[in-house]
Amino acid sequence: MSSSELKNDRFLRALLKQPVDTTPVWIMRQAGRYLPEYRETRARAGSFMDLCENPDLACEVTLQPLERYDLDAAILFSDILTIPDAMGLGLYFSEGEGPKFKTPVRDIGAIRNLPTPDPEQELRYVMDAVRVIRRELNGRVPLIGFSGSPWTLATYMVEGGTTKDFGKIKGMMYDAPAALQLLLEKLADSVSSYLNAQIAAGAQAVMVFDTWGGVLSPEKYQEFSLAYMQRIVSGLTRHSEGRQVPVTLFTKGGGQWLELMAETGCDALGLDWTQDIADARQRVGNKVALQGNMDPCVLYASPEIIREEVKKVLHGYGKGTGHVFNLGHGIHQHINPDNVSVLVDAVHDYSSKA
Amino acid sequence: MSSSELKNDRFLRALLKQPVDTTPVWIMRQAGRYLPEYRETRARAGSFMDLCENPDLACEVTLQPLERYDLDAAILFSDILTIPDAMGLGLYFSEGEGPKFKTPVRDIGAIRNLPTPDPEQELRYVMDAVRVIRRELNGRVPLIGFSGSPWTLATYMVEGGTTKDFGKIKGMMYDAPAALQLLLEKLADSVSSYLNAQIAAGAQAVMVFDTWGGVLSPEKYQEFSLAYMQRIVSGLTRHSEGRQVPVTLFTKGGGQWLELMAETGCDALGLDWTQDIADARQRVGNKVALQGNMDPCVLYASPEIIREEVKKVLHGYGKGTGHVFNLGHGIHQHINPDNVSVLVDAVHDYSSKA
């Protein structure tokens, strides 16, 4: 079916600042460990990467939250580190320590040797998942594709995994900036072709997650993270299936740089909960839509408090379109799934009456 | 000796925006694991808390960085969690996992039962350390006393240790705000009397570390962190030994709230490296001095780059007094100690010529 047959397009409309009947909502990491049915599928799949690499199972978990909640978008189930894995770094997950790479890249020689993955070859399993999910969604809601930002991917590739102090990649940034720039260029090209392939396979919106841009100084953020997201935005397919494909940039901890991010030509910005959404809207004006930004920890509270906090965010954004409700970061593992219903219903309920 | 006999008071003068000959510099966590002599003393002491609780050894490590570097201040060697430990929570350190408490506080009953520690009783070892260090410093440079902020202490007390998602304390914040407020009030009172006792024992400046204020939304930051730091600032002894005792507030990740922080009546604000110091100075005007803010990761770079980055921070702050050079966060464990000399000398060298 063509996307013009989308039964619910308010997510795409809000990202493009077109009128909507009620504020659309989805939840970062909505397909995840807080859901018992996810844990069941995950156990059947084997490892986390086995789950990502199996298009049918990836589709199964992508659709699970849509069965429970009245969500306005689905997001491809995958990992942000598929590109470095496809470059040959050997992604694996060690219990309790997060993602790791067998062969981190630490010098210009290793960076020069990195191949640019072909999305329909080494990353074919992702494109297959997009195709299967689109077929199974059958026009119910739009499908979001995504990637990590070049800077964020580079942090894992250079550090070899998660890090608290970013010593290795920042050492490279200060002492060997040309090496890091080459790595970021290669990543920007790979992310562009990866997202374009997701769009060709059926993704109806795309999002770039810059999880670690917020650990940079303002000067270095512009030079080593934003510049490469800008390249990606410029290189993206912006129309597909007769519709515009909105692109959203999200730098966690990057609230002070919203104006600069809005200048990249993206359609929307993700906002974490450390920002006031009313201030943020004032700062970006009519340039972009905003997605966010309730503290994920509100979901530990009682239904009454959840409804109040939802109201505050909706009220903070104010009248008019251009708002996609979301948390300010991914949902936590130990949240009671019933509380997500409270949130989703409250968003639709209050915003349709406002 | 009286503090009027201080041989080097440029640190105190800069915090009070009085003229200085060259920009003063000290380094957060300057007495720490990156120094081989620290590791040697630490091994002799036994556990980390054994080291904190032994005034002679605490003095020894406090003075170690002053032997190596031309620093303009010493900072009491201690832990930020001494107050909750003195309240009976049972602080301990598990290898690689940071501080933990045997009996976290999770409800209003436990909070009501918390005693307010007497600084000269349960925390006498800290005051003894201050007295020994002052004697051994012999007027060379001023001594900084410090405490964690109420919010930051509360995160450890409620979570039971370090946390990535702050689910328990934020759950309390949303669902049982009165319980959390009582805890924060008790902590504000305890921190005030703790810092006043440090001043009485000889601390010549004090600093409040709000390590985790930056994980809050703007609304919650004001209500649950800043309000209690405000109480502390209002309750502090501001003169001792014939001199003003400057107070510095530092919220990591709190760069967007500098104007609000400056209104507390403190003398200076600590700045992390995600802020541009020129912007920060413009925003706070003449209200407070600024301390910071080089990315600690610059110390992984070569001496040439370190000097360049020092120059950028000094140039960013610009002409006139009111700047104390520091890193934007504590020095990392794996830094080459020689690079700290490069930094310290560069600060004095460039700023005396500017």
Oligomer: homodimer
E-strand count of chain A? 11
**What is the count of DSSP helices of chain A, taking H or I runs of 4+ residues?**
15
The whole-angstrom Rg of chain A is 19 Å
Distance between the termini of chain A: 34 Å
Q: What does the largest sheet of chain A look like?
A: 7 strands, parallel
Proportion in helices of chain A: 40-55%
N-to-C SSE series of chain A?
A: HHHHEHEEHHEHHHEHEEEHEHEHEH
Coarse morphology of chain A: globular
- Measured by DSSP, the beta-strand proportion of chain A falls in 5-15%
Summed over residues and divided by their number, the pLDDT of chain A gives a mean of 96
Q: Tell me the structural class of chain A.
A: alpha/beta
Low-confidence stretches of chain A: none
The pair of chains with the biggest contact is:
A-B, 35 and 35 residues
For the structure shown, list the relevant keywords.
homodimer, about 350 residues, alpha/beta, 7-stranded parallel β-sheet, two-stranded antiparallel sheet, 15 helices, 11 strands
